[in-house]
Amino acid sequence: MSVNVASKNSGSPPVFTRKQQPQLVAEKFAACPACGRPGKQNTTRLQVASPRGESSWAKCGDCGAYHLIGEYDCAIEAAHTVQMPWGQLRAGVRLNDFKKRMFNATLAGINKHASDAKTILDVGCSFGGFLLEARRQGYDGSGVDIVPEAVDYVKQQGFAAEECESLENCHLFSEQNPVDVLTVLDAHIYWPNQPAELAAAWRLIRPGGLLVMRVITKSHFVSIGRAIRPIAPKFGKLLIRRSVTDHRFCMPLKSLLHTIEACGFSIESVVPRDAQHSDESSIAVRSLFAIGQLSWKMLRCHLAPGAMIYARKPNA
Ligand SMILES: [Zn+2]
User: How many CB atoms lie within 10 A of CB 145?
Assistant: First the structure.
């Protein structure tokens, strides 16, 4: 599996397919599900304690991403998600309120980069918090998620929605009926294969349309946790656990930007501050975003725990 950089400006879809990944997982040096490059001997293996339990992870020697090792099973992933707040109705609706700052920053970014956009597909829509805000601002929103209860709830709110294991199986939009804006807010860390899902997203977005991703990029904290673990084991382990939480992968921002570009998109802007969920977030989180915004703007050095990426599918 390789990254078809040549397709970037050619108008043809990228080459990744999700089906290529599972059989590779069992191989000694599996292809990296974060950047798509073939596995090499410089892939590092490690054990990570997370809400998923003690699990085996690898660090890609090419892109620096940490990722969970193992086959992806959507039913197991959905069963895991309903144990988390964003997979449960009451807690999910509370989260919608908590994340309003981020939702409105996203909509302001969409208006800035695509003022003529009308349709939005929200991937990993949960209980529709972003879709409701988007509707208030005049957008026609649709959503996909892997949790049936979340999809039912979103449908009850009057949105088109679909249970969807992969964007490759999405029926709400297509190359013949593309969407103006595809948003992925706090969802890409659960994708089993970043390049394959980005390639599928590329096909669903209209030429000139936008891909907007709230990405969680804490791999630098995992690396710090690993470095201090020999001298402060408890703190090192805690830092890794808090960085990974229940995610399936953890990628440096610059590597992720490269993967998005390799999948055919051009990066319009990266705004760490837009990724802050709430003004009620803890002071530590708010400080990290404030410092991260400054360091990215001035030095292109990414220190924040996340960022908002606005990327465009070039006109054919
Ligand atoms: Zn990689």
Answer: 27
